[in-house]
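Hi everyone, sorry if this is the wrong subforum. Our group has a chain we'd like a structural model of before ordering constructs, and none of us has done structure prediction before. Sequence below.
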Amino acid sequence: LFLSAQKTQLLHGRDSLGDWLDDPEIERAQYLMDEWKHTEARAVLVRILKRSLQREGQLKRRAARFSLYRLLLLRDREPLNLVLAKLDDLAPVAPLVALYLVPWLMRPRVRERLADFLEDRERNVFPYLAAWILAAIADQTGPPTMRILAYCRSTAHDKNAPTYLRTIAATVLGHGSQVHDVEWLRQEARREYDPRLVRGYLVALGRAGRLDAGTALRARSNVPSIDRTLTYLAGRRDFPSLLTARK
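Answer:
Right subforum, don't worry. Here is the predicted structure as tokens:
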């Protein structure tokens, strides 16, 4: 996660301890969860999440993590619009954001809002957050939208983008199964020498069921160290989640 002058504030002394002090609302929410009083807990958790976002660029991480995780367990849709509107502010808790969004990722409106965010260079300034969002999209059974594929295409092709983001974008491209994208992945896997990128392209093809023997052979010739990756991919039809590593 990269520090940004627009999104990060250095705190000193008492202010720096703010996230670690006892919080009566957090204690109240946990009590309600423990007592299975979920309707009451939801209201408190949403309030905690809103409070964690009160100051732009100054996320209260403890409160955000606490509330998002429990709202995820409750599959509460009430704060969905808030989360989508504040994705950039929630970047420090990106894994939880991605997990929270999963139940609604196939809804057209949610996909459009995510595409709006990914395309917005003013808001989408954290590669770490974008990677988690794309990982959630790659886990879905339905194909990505054309707008999301366009973003992934430009990102995967961008040699200045972080390697981990490029490989996750490549995985989404494979999931999209567009003929030109699959062919691009094969060409890159055959001519690339960076082991991280080659591994990413092969996994993208493998997850899409498009890894052919010729591509595998050429990739192994260029980068012998990816032999274990190819062994893992051989004949595999089921893959673990990119979000949870569980099948």
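For your construct planning: The chain has a mean pLDDT of 90. The chain has 13 helices and no strands.
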